[in-house]
Amino acid sequence: MAVNVAIVGATGAVGEEFIRILESRKFPVKELRLLASKRSAGKKMRFCGVEYTVQELTRHSFQGIKIALFSAGSSISKEYVPYAIESGAVCVDNSSAFRMDDDVPLVVPEVNPQDIAKHHGVIANPNCSTIQMVVALKPIHDVAKIKRIVVSTYQSVSGAGLKAVDELQRETASILAGKNDFQRKLFPHQIAFNVLPQIPQSNAFLQNGYTSEELKMVNETKKIMGDHSIRITATTVRVPVLRCHSESVNIETEKKITVAEVRKLLAKSPGVTLMDDPANQVYPLAPFAAGKDDVFVGRIREDESIDKGINLWIVSDNLRKGAALNAIQIAEKLL
Ligand code: NAP
Ligand code: 3JM
User: Fold this and answer.
1) Do 167 and 75 fall within a single domain?
2) Pocket of ligand 2 contains residue 156 by CB under 6 Å
3) Shortest-distance ligand to the CA of residue 321
4) Which domain holds residue 7?
């Protein structure tokens, strides 16, 4: 049965992807309501060959809406999710606003679909870096029990929104043109031809020296996997890539698992594509994964510094599986 769907943050990097994926997956949309700030009200966007006009988000925006997909930042979610629930909508929220609330399910459909049913009007979509990691690690955890994870990320600029994509492109062009007067608006340092160990770029470091993105990976992973005994440490890094996050992941398991066993397991895991043929230089790469749905895994090898350790290289499209696709898969399960 077709339902009325609202997208909050429709004009953003994630919002645009929501529209594309609703269309390509033939999500049963009766009425689509595109919502953004006053700045974008009146803008035209296309869905299934029909032109839609973006409306300004207000507390009255959710009348008749069954599914509300939120992707306009955590303060907007905190303010407007309650109005959407009051109007009778179920919200899938892409922000960090409610992820760690005890009564809010935090869901990756390949990992913990059973948690969806526990919702009270809002289901949280995890952080992009968390999602791709748990899709790849859950099958291994089920078989060998992961004791510890050490992850370093290589995150694309689209994870910081459309303005960040624009800044990387313009700064790159400016440097290539030999100019040195580029005015940065978003990143605290040059992002073109550089690597920044600070995500998000706008937030101060926490007292323990970590960033909030790093803590998200630690806390969200435990909640989604339903195992608070896993020890996790993360370093999250922005790289001058437009789309897709890459991750170097080291795991230590309780039970010995061989490289061959990991390959066999991941080859049949839902949402995972194994790309691991080192002899032919085959491993996952961001431009290849861009626009695709799966989480790609390669460079699987034993960590020879410990008894039971494995290294993996995990790449996925941060705007798709890392955001809009995962949220729409949750909405599909809701229906
Ligand atoms: P973006 O490209 O900067 O887009 C932001 C969107 O939010 C735009 O549609 C913008 O509308 C809208 N917005 C901003 N202020 C608003 C307001 N006061 N009222 C209504 N709408 C407003 O950012 P993005 O990359 O799409 O990310 C958006 C949010 O999604 C992030 O802040 C984050 O919470 C979440 N996110 C989650 C993941 C994940 O891993 N799950 C990944 C990326 C992002 P205008 O066009 O009117 O400015
Ligand atoms: C990804 O509210 C904000 O400032 C948005 C920050 C943000 C988030 C977040 O905290 O919701 C930008 C990009 C995320 C996320 O997925 O956690």
Assistant:
1) no
2) no
3) 1
4) 3-126+323-334
Task: Name the pLDDT band for 203 (thresholds 50, 70, 90).
Answer: confident
Distance CA 298, CA 263 (A): 9
- Check residue 202 and give its pLDDT: 87
* 209 & 86 share domain: no
pLDDT per residue over 158-188, tens digit each? 999 999 999 999 999 999 999 989 999 999 9
Q: Which residues pair with 295 in a beta bridge?
A: 272
| Pair 175, 261 in one domain | yes
CA terminus-to-terminus distance, the chain: 8
Ligand 1 within 6 A of CB of 149: no
The pair of structure tokens assigned to 252 is 């230590």
Closest ligand 2 atom, residue 77 Cα: 2
Site to probe by mutation for ligand 2, drawn from 95, 100, 198 as the one with most ligand atoms within 8 Å of Cβ, is 95
Q: What is the DSSP letter of 125?
A: P
Pocket lining: 92 vs ligand 1, CB cutoff 6 Å: no
| Listed residue (149, 126, 128) closest to 137, CA to CA | 149
Using one digit for the tens of pLDDT, what is the confidence trace for 260-277?
Answer: 999 999 999 999 999 999
- Please tell me the pTM assigned to this model: 0.97
Which 3 state secondary structure label does DSSP give 199?
Answer: coil
Reading the block at residue 179, the tokens are 């100019």
Residue 283: how many CA atoms within 13 Å on its side-chain side? Answer: 13
Burial 20-39 (b: 16+ CB within 10 A, else e): bbbeeeebebeebbbbbeee
The answer, yes or no, to whether any atom of ligand 1 lies below 6 A from the CB of 326, is: no
Distance CA 38, CA 270 (A): 40
Ligand 1 centroid to residue 286 C-alpha, Å? 22
